[in-house]
């Protein structure tokens, strides 16, 4: 398996623009998680899905953030409009939770909003 | 509810010396416990996990951790540090439930002195 695949690896955008981050989880995994990592706040769980259904989005910072999982092999995290304080590394992770395997993380998307 | 506390945001050891990274957890149910490693500009990688089998868990790259219920600890050790061990290390906890999410600590940055 190729692991969790995120795209793009780097994204630089201007304030006010829409940004879409993409994630392909490991085949067969039934949980998908979106995290944000910054120096100030560390790793923050934004939202997670089970069987494509959003379970907990309490970590989504504002209505500018939205996430979808239209099928078992694809998820998006969208920020509209983007702001400089959204600059961070965004990680996607997937898991087959029932067996305590832990998460497999993607390599992340480094977002810079200027 | 679960939580983890990592003692020391930065640990520095000499090459060849013992590595000890401390983690204490809090959990209202029997926990799963994890250590993850993050190398620069990469995602998190699972080092090892405890899932109620042996209390001494061996992981990749010569690391191991011991689950001590009486001390609510899950410290990470390696007998002899190597330069390539320089990275950020995260302790994490989840409960015995398919609905559990993993809660990450704030991380410990390990530096290796030549």
Number of strands of chain B: 11
Beginning-to-end CA distance, first to last residue of chain B: 41 Å
Characterize the main sheet of chain B. Answer: 6 strands, mixed
Given as residue ranges, the uncertain stretches of chain B (5+ residues, pLDDT < 50) are none
Helix content of chain B: under 10%
**Shape, per Cα inertia axes of chain B:** globular
> Mean pLDDT of chain A, rounded to whole units?
92
Name the structural class of chain A.
Answer: mainly beta
Structural class by secondary-structure content of chain B: mainly beta
Taking all residues together, what is the mean pLDDT of chain B?
Answer: 90
**Biggest interface and residues each:** A-B, 23 and 23 residues
How would you sum up the major sheet of chain A?
7 strands, mixed
H/E topology pattern of chain B: EEEEEEEEEEE
Helix content of chain A: under 10%
Overall form of chain A: globular
Oligomer state of the chains in this structure:
heterodimer
Number of helices of chain B: 0
**SS field, number of helical segments of chain A:** 0
């Amino acid at each position: 398996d190729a692991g969790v695949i995120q795209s793009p690896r780097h994204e630089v955008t201007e304030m006010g623009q829409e940004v879409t981050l993409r994630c392909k989880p490991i085949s067969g995994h039934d949980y998908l998680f979106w995290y944000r990592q910054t120096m100030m706040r560390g790793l923050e769980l934004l939202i997670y899905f089970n069987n494509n259904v959003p379970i907990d989005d309490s970590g989504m910072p504002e209505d500018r953030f939205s996430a979808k999982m239209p099928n078992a092999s694809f998820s998006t995290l969208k920020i509209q409009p983007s702001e400089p304080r959204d600059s961070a590394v965004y990680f996607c992770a997937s898991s087959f939770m029932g067996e305590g395997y832990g998460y497999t993380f993607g390599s992340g998307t480094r977002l810079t909003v200027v | 509810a679960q939580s983890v506390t990592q003692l020391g945001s930065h640990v520095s050891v000499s090459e060849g010396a013992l590595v000890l990274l401390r983690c204490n957890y809090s959990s209202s149910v029997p926990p799963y416990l994890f250590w993850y490693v993050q190398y620069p500009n990469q995602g998190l990688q699972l080092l090892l996990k405890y899932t109620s089998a042996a209390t001494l868990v061996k992981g990749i790259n010569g690391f191991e951790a011991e689950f001590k219920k009486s001390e609510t600890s899950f410290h990470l050790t390696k007998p002899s540090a190597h330069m390539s061990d320089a990275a950020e290390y995260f302790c994490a906890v989840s409960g015995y439930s398919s609905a559990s999410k993993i809660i990450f600590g704030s991380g410990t940055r390990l530096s290796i002195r030549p």
